[in-house]
Amino acid sequence: MSTLARVTFARPRREEQDEPRVARRAHLVALVRVEVRHEPRPGALGVVHRADLRLAVHDHHVRPLVDLVVVERLACREVDGDDARLAVGAQHLWVVGLYLDAADVPAFQVVLLLTVSERAAMRKATRMELAVIVFVIALALIALEWVHRTKVAMLGAAVVVVSQTIEQGEAIGAIDFNTIGLLAGMMLIVRVTEPTGVYNYLAIRAGQLAQGRPLGVVVALAVTTAVLSAFLDNLTTILLVVPITFLLADALDIDPIPLILIEIITSNIGGTATLIGDPPNILIAGATGLSFSEFIVNLAPVAAAAFVVVTGALYLWFRPRLQIAPEARERVMQLDAAKSIEDPEELKRTMPVLLGTILLFFLHKPLHMEVATVALLGATFMLLLTKQDVEKALSGIEWSTLFFFLGLFVMVGALEHEGAIKEIADWIADVTGGDRTAELLGITWGSAVGSATVDNIPFTATMIPVVEQLTADNPGDDAYWWALAIGACFGGNATLIAAAANVAAAGMAERAGRPIGYVPFLKIGIPATLLSMAVGTAYIWLRYIA
How far apart are CA 151 and CA 163, in angstroms? Predict the structure, then answer.
């Protein structure tokens, strides 16, 4: 369907020639307001596929010289790049700049041809409501554990795609394949190296260094997890330390779940300290250009303080479940760790690849490589060098965890696409009322709540434009970005789905026959988040407000 808007262009006034928003490519001979009213069939949305419109010039002398540029769209909904979705029955306005390669050309007449295609679709408000309803129901079913969380996530994703709440292409674009690739690659690396006995060796040595005492075990695992999370990233760290933790707990004859939960919490806190430690920080760095050292200077102190407070509280809470019998402690101290290596030849083949992969994780930024590329590269070399059967090795990938992530990313993508997350972010901006203190604290706590609800990666991505708007009047005030980082990273501890590391650890625990439920995690995650947020709030107040 096409709509015509006929306009006679005349030379603009002098002040219009200096229009600052026009990217000057030649002589601006007209700056006009074009009004189009589109009446599609009821229940349909018109989609402008060519936002620069199509230009027909009746004067053949000037036709080769004419160049039409859309300077500004007014009253267009969902403007994104060169696409704009038209509201049904509304008037749509453009400011159009007409350029000529020649300076002196008489007035002439042109025809703007706006090409519009229709598709049946629900109203935007209805689509947003459906996206929110599907996500809330999915969260409830995951919390109640009536159905496996992977089934829930996949069904929720199917509903939002089939209902056209989100288009299939947009749903695929919402999936973070960097996370999926990292998970798959590291799962494969762990599966190939596990039969060598190297993780048994590390578990025994860790227990012996901690002298088989609960406090020593907790401190050793928590510190290792936090430090590795800061300089690798929290998801990679969890994939490395959880297998060791299960073996260590088995050797000490204690429940592994408290140790796993402590590692999840400390991985998110430790990842807060650096630019590469947690995905929200990577997003913030990409948007602002803040350096690695600036992240450490501003976030490492609060991460260290929160680590001490939260780890201490978790140890006190779990101490009754971490009692180690004297005979178990003595047994671990007498073990010969070297005898736990079951296949030395396989270890010689695969250990250099494992160490090289870990080294590349530290260097992936300078080398301009994504972490998924590093993990999959390491997994590829593992498969080439190992003597194990490929099918058996691939069976070690936790497919249920990967498909849970796929479904979760699509559901969250629908929320983001329909503007539900943006409304939360805009609400935070509105309620602060322009007061700097209120804005900083509002960003911190709002980001924590939002990240706990929908995953901290998409929420951070949505909050970045909001923070940019808030800092427009305070250029150079980076406190807003540190508030966002603290809230998003610490908020990742609140629920099982708030951060990728949480879901990955839960998947590995389930595979080991010790599942971590949504509600049991909530009972630990929320108090840990509140404690860390209290530390974070005090830090922001003392360093950036007082």
Answer: 18
367 three-state secondary structure: coil
Task: Single out the residue of 134, 115, 303 nearest to residue 225, CA to CA.
Answer: 303
**For 101-206, where are the E strands, in sequence order?**
108-120
What confidence category does residue 317 fall into, taking pLDDT thresholds of 50, 70 and 90?
very high
Alpha carbons within 13 A on the beta-carbon side of 185 = 25
Nearest to 288 by CA among 439, 481, 444: 481
pLDDT digits (tens, 9 = 90+) for 226-253: 988 887 778 878 888 888 888 888 888 8
Helix (H) or strand (E) holding 516: none
- How far, CA to CA in Å, does 119 sit from each of 11, 43, 80, 400? 39, 9, 18, 35
At residue 125 the predicted structure's pLDDT band, cuts being 50, 70 and 90, is: low
If one counts every other C-beta atom within 10 angstroms of the C-beta of residue 338, the result is 11
Distances (CA, A) of 511 to 55, 250, 420, 505: 61, 15, 34, 10
**How many helices and strands, by DSSP H and E, does the chain display?**
22, 9
Higher pLDDT, 94 or 260: 260
- Cβ neighbours of residue 264 closer than 8 Å, sequence gap 6 or more: 238, 493, 501, 502, 505
> Rounded distance, CA 523 to CA 82, Å?
47
Characterize the bridge pairing of strands 44-48 and 77-80. unpaired
Between residues 101 and 308, the one the model is more confident about: 308
Q: Where are the alpha helices (DSSP H) in 335-455?
A: 344-363, 371-385, 390-394, 399-417, 420-431, 436-454
* Count of CB atoms situated within 10 Å of the CB of 279: 28
Question: Contact at 8 Å (CB) between 249 and 324?
Answer: no
Summary mean pLDDT of the chain: 75
Give me the residue label for tokens 């706006």.
114
In the chain, domain spans: 2-121, 177-279+296-407
Q: What's the CA gap between 527 and 298, in Å, rounded?
A: 24
CA distance 130 to 99: 45
Closest to 122 in 3D by CA, of 213, 44, 58: 44
Mean pLDDT for the stretch of residues 368-392: 88
- pLDDT (tens digit per residue) in 163-186: 888 888 889 988 888 778 877 888
Question: Regarding beta strands 77-80 and 83-86, do their DSSP bridges make them parallel or antiparallel, or are they unpaired?
Answer: antiparallel
Measured in residues, the chain has a length of 546
pLDDT tens per residue across span 357-374: 888 877 877 888 887 888
DSSP code of residue 59 = -
- Please give the average per-residue pLDDT across 412-418, as a whole number: 84
Mean pLDDT, residues 26-51: 39
